[in-house]
Structure formats: C-alpha cells, structure tokens
From TrEMBL:
InterPro entries: ACAD10-like (IPR052898), HAD-like_sf (IPR036412), HAD-SF_hydro_IA (IPR006439), HAD_sf (IPR023214). This is Uncharacterized protein. Signal peptide: none annotated. It comes from Arthrobotrys oligospora (strain ATCC 24927 / CBS 115.81 / DSM 1491) (Nematode-trapping fungus). One of its GO terms (molecular function) is phosphatase activity. PANTHER family: HAD FAMILY PHOSPHATASE, HYDROLASE, PUTATIVE (AFU_ORTHOLOGUE AFUA_1G12880)-RELATED.
Length: 138
C-alpha cells in the first residue's frame, strides 16, 4: 500500500520504503492485486512502482489474488524467509490482513488517507526511524 488512492503515491510510505532499502538490512517486497492495462491507458504502470521494491509479486502474473492463502504462501517462499513472522505485511484491506496474520505474518493496517500511524507502527516493529526529513525528495 503506497498510495492515498490506488493511483497516487503517498510520500510517507514511499519515504519509509526508501529509508528501509538504504539500510541494506531488509528485503522489500510488494504483493499487489493488479490488472494489465493497454499501452496508452492512464493507469498503466510505467515501471516506477516496481523499481521501489526488491521483489514485486503481481496477481496478474502469478494467477492468484489476495486474500487467497496460496498467494501469501508464494510471497513467503519468494521472499526467502525462514519463518512468516520475519515478514511485515501492510495493506488497507482487513481481509488481506486477516489471511496474512492467520499465516503468521506480522500485519499493519494502512488507511488510505492517513498512513502516518502505520509508519509509526512499522518504526516500532523494526526499531527504525522512518519519518520524512525536510530534505526528502519524493
């Protein structure tokens, strides 16, 4: 969940992702339910979203969708973790979070219009400062 809407980047979430990547201590992945849009469609991803992540799992490419258990099993395997509890899954939908939690992942709900609390929860879980600095460019 990186946007205020499904099409708009949220600076605090993108900033947190970038800070975590810079530490070199985390593998950052995306698990998204998506569609393939025609070349000239305004919602077509230009590749910038994928570039934020080390691993990008798109439902349209793997033939599974959240909240199916098997897409979470696929994500756990793809991320290469030994235990699901080593992963933190952020999402805006309760059903997706519920399945992830049942499978042992740590979860954080990200409200579309106010992700700050989610960023604070992630900071607490990881012990990292993920706040945006005034000089951050997004």
């Amino acid at each position: 969940m990186i946007g205020r809407t499904s099409r708009e980047y949220n600076p605090s979430i993108v900033g947190a992702i970038e800070k975590l990547r810079r530490t070199g201590r985390y593998k950052i992945g995306a698990l998204t339910n998506n569609y393939v849009f025609p070349e000239d469609h305004p919602y077509r991803d230009d590749g910038n979203t994928k570039a934020l992540f080390d691993i990008y799992i798109a439902s349209v490419e793997v033939g599974m969708r959240k909240p199916e258990r098997r897409i979470f099993e696929y994500a756990i395997k793809t991320m290469g973790v030994e235990e699901p509890s080593q992963m933190v899954f952020l999402d805006d939908l309760g059903g997706n979070l519920r399945t992830a939690k049942e499978m042992g992942l740590r979860t954080i709900k990200v409200p579309l219009h106010d992700p700050q609390d989610a960023v604070r929860q992630l900071e607490d879980m990881l012990g990292e400062d993920l706040s945006l600095s005034p000089s951050s460019k997004l």
